[in-house]
């Protein structure tokens, strides 16, 4: 135990005995086969524990396995040793201390430290002039906790020395590994150092920009040589324009331009026309100052985030972030912030709201020991492990401790804040949940609503046994479509996870003010004067709710009663009410130029919400149903052969394309049909199929084989004997379920894999009855079982009375830029979660939210 005491920092430990070179070699010989040198493609985690947010800066340091290169904090390294038998770990510790002060009070010159951890990417403020640090590394051999100090070139075997050097000099695992994950490092432009700037007196205003050649007001670029403001084209950021910035370069040869609206204290989007790629400009602040732009004081300094139109949006930023109000910091369990990784606030806001819900707390943090103990060998690649890690980090209070009283006094005396624990970094979580996703894996800003649906999808696919916390969001929507000519109706149901409310702009209560503001704004822009103070449209919530419930026209509706296209109207109602209702305000739309735009409106969202009047009623007396006839499939003769060649076996459907579409909010069965009928040609082609067919009555119905020759007969034959396909049975049993369970579930759901899994999880009371199953398999009339009504999706229906407990707000002009902030009501008071800062809210801006979270009030 003495050796263990020495390792864990106990004074007086005598275990660090000096060993001769031969002793060290003999000690390592049994473990040499397990020590590896990192190869290209290996991810070396030396910054963060796989199960917690411990790092080399933590009190217990960090242990890196010399075989798997996974890192573990003091609490978790023993678990990894017991599970894998790996004995050799590299212990990393960074020691921080205050600098010694000189006689005049200034800090003495910083002495050179033996900085061992090359490329140690930590999140703490190590650039403070008041602190210095020194790094420590050593090999630790479990279970006896022998220690070997590093570097130790003379005594260590050559292989071990090479492996240690490679680990210490390895790059961050979150940097670009392959083309599908992280964005490339931008090169420095060769024109940046000696860029010519014309002294022509051009000064760029903070807003009101437009292209000098076509008056376009979107996707504008400032040429850094002459100050011309011109529109871009379909390049670099996929925004539209007429290409006048490129024409300007071809005419005059001025190479660099910066995109207006992306300038923050941290940088901006810079493009080099000569080099034909996005670049870095190390002298960007100086180049912008030439045209009167103070880069260090652009709006968003506090967060280092984007803000496209700084002047008109100042009030929105200030109101939502409660700027100007002295906010009291909050500490302890449930009050831990999340550091911004660069446009990751959409993820942070959603996760703060998610882990304020008891069902998610119980499912992950409540099952922490079991989830961690049964995690796979690489826990960094396991969804449930990373969800549990994040939930524990947010809820434990371990990473949100108030400063000591002595530290507060010292800060007051020095009038300088001392570096404190500023929340946790969701870097490992983001890397996992966003992998293979083209948008979330980038460093660009994203839509919080899209990420919420993406997360729900991941929770559904990685459920823990029969427990699925996302059930609290799921509800059924009843859609009633009526043929306007015959007055006949059709009722269908679909699953949804959030309620999307339209913005009823026509119901604004301050129309006169809005008209006056718009006239003044246009006049100011025309005369290049400062814009007037923004006037925000005030929309009654009741008007938005009314707009949601009103009938809407169905384009290209095919009436089965008429056997032809006709006019149709659709209304939507709740067939069930969820336990937690998520309401999204549809603030974002597209302009005529397909550039995303945002409605900057104020909606009086209620604290108590009653939507019981939106309960679906089903087929009413006197209503006549439309015949259950599918529209004919019309295929041009010259396309039939091509279509037949594209049709694929349903078991070969590209599931990655299916999930991309499902994450957009479309029904899963519709997504499968879209990918199937477009021949696995990708999500984009399938998306176009959905747009064309989404109003069809059987849009969300399960995929059935089209009636071409043998395909139809095969499908009919399968339906007669109701014998599930053996490959589907094998797929379910490979997940750990009994064969009997798989057979019964597939028979009850007409061999639909997704619904069969739902059936299994909704029947935890199922007991294996071999006699019953054998009888079922041998029964020639087993098709009778298929007549039983399949189990529908699990919902937690109840009252439609809700109370508001959280909301997410967005600042900026579109979901592709700006900043997200979350407000949550805890212990009877509102709390603002603004990245790593968590404070008591003084004026929660409930009228400016984007997503609202309501919990059901028990009836």
From TrEMBL:
InterPro entries: Papain-like_cys_pep_sf, Peptidase_C19_UCH, Ub_carboxyl-term_hydrolase, UBA, UBA-like_sf, Ubiquitinyl_hydrolase, UBP13_Znf-UBP_var, USP. Keywords: Autophagy, Cytoplasm, Hydrolase, Isopeptide bond, Metal-binding, Phosphoprotein, Protease, Repeat, Thiol protease, Ubl conjugation, Ubl conjugation pathway, Zinc, Zinc-finger. GO terms for molecular function: BAT3 complex binding; cysteine-type deubiquitinase activity; cysteine-type endopeptidase activity; K48-linked deubiquitinase activity; proteasome binding; protein-folding chaperone binding; ubiquitin binding; ubiquitin protein ligase binding. Pfam families: UBA, UCH, zf-UBP, zf-UBP_var. It comes from the Eukaryota. Its EC number is 3.4.19.12. Residues 187-295 form the UBP-type domain. SUPFAM superfamilies: Cysteine proteinases, RING/U-box, UBA-like. The keyword Transcription does not apply. Zn(2+) binds at residues 211, 214, 231, 244. It is found in: Cytoplasm. This is Ubiquitin carboxyl-terminal hydrolase. It comes from Phocoena sinus (Vaquita). The lineage of its organism: Eukaryota, Metazoa, Chordata, Craniata, Vertebrata. The gene is USP13.
